[in-house]
Amino acid sequence: MGVEVVSGGAVDAVEVSAKVEAVAVAPGAAAVAKNTSFREESNRLGDLKDGERKALAELRAKVEEAIVEGKLFDLEDTTATITSSKVKVEKKKKEKKEGKKKKEKAAEEKKAEVDVKVEEPAAVNEEDKKTEEVAKEEVEAVEEKKAEDEAKEDEATEENKAEEAEPAEEKKQEEGAATAEDAGEPEKADTATPAVAVVDKDVALWGVPLLPSKGDEATDVVLLKFLRARDFKAGAAFEMLRRTLRWRRDWNIPTSAATATSSDDGAVPEGACRLDGADREGHPVCYNALGVFADEAVYRAALGDGEGRARFLRWRVSAMESHVAQLDFAPGGAASLLQVTDLKGSPGPARKDFRVAIRQVVDLFQDNYPELVARNILINAPFSYYAFSTLFYPFLTQRTKSKFVVARPSKVTETLLKYIPIEAIPVKYGGLKRDGDTEFSAEDAEVTEVVVKASSTETIEIEATEGDTTLTWDLTVLGWEVSYKEEFVPADEGSYTIVVSKGRKMGAAEEAVRNSFRAGEPGKVVITVENATRGKKKVLFRHKAKSSSAKKC
Fold first, then answer.
1. What is the pTM of this model?
2. Is residue 292 a part of any domain in this protein?
3. Could you list the residue range(s) of the whole structural domain that residue 94 is in?
């Protein structure tokens, strides 16, 4: 079996072994290079800078301490709230006591002033005057004692009211402490407070244990994601981790992503979000097709009722959890996704509920799934996208914005090819991957690349070295806009050429061609690609041959 590439009238043979163990490349034809598109930032400790290692050590210490003391979630905040409430109550009681004393003092001073103004008789002798002063002092003492008794009663009443306003749990603790003190028992204030909690040392995130002392290497990979999202500020990264854990607890999300499912109540149609293959670096690729929501019935089912937006968010979070379960958090593993969002036919800016739901999804993912998307490629972006993007771009961090790649409809395949091998790109996006494909696998054939220059023609020939051989091929042209035809030319000059596919003009939106031909005699399939445009075109193809003799063996 062989392949010939005819360029400008000259014929150059490219021999391809049946097992595709080696490919000889002729001028004008080349095996597609598996160049790396981008590399994720290293999660290996040896590759980190000194400042980054220091920040990681600090975050590890914070997480270790919080887990061991049972304060990783919100226990510390609850204790602080109770303490603050108690301080406020005590302060209020003290202010009321001081206010009472001030009022009493003011009343006494006023009374003294009135007494001073009372005119004494001029003829009163010294002895009567002394007697009168003694009597007056006795009356003032009685009144002062009465005022003190009333103040104590008011104080007791205010204290009772303050105690009733305190949390029931705090009151019980104070009563318990008072009982223990009266009985002569040692003080046990800490044992009755909610600060003592069951310590969960098995707390995990996405199936990865968070307690650093467990020694799991994946723990550092997860912690590094939070650090990178907060520019390696350990304190900010720790608070982000805590908020994420609280959010997951409130939403009742399993600690292990492997137990999550993307199933829902059927409101969101199939194909709106799915994993399909991997990129050149091994990252799982998630395809989001927003065009499915342009259908009115689908839109109403997904977002039409009062619970629609909440249901949409639940579905998208559930899908994300199932995708995260496919990641490898080991150092050097593929610990993030490549996300492709197809904007073709998506609801326009007039769909307010859809805009709000998408923005909420972006916010949730940015806050609770840090660094889990390596690249976010937006394809088939219409002109209205630029207005649509202004709605959520201001809410993205600069680091998140830097991960966005936008491709217009004419550049979809070319853009995806920078990140994903052509054999892993779905045919709807110009690639060679077909659902449930039984013809080709990664081991079947190497993808070959041919460049067709402007205003020129290239001919690809696939040889059948013996009769009763079935030839099968996949072929795509980046951007298409070329003329294309297929023929079978027998080796016997006396035989007639057979038209496999009539010549036709291939538009820009064409999918990859797959065809096959059963050759009854030795010969070759000739594929002609004519490029009448002013720019060069790139042809990518693969093929295989299956002879009847090989089938019998």
1. 0.70
2. yes
3. 86-113+133-192
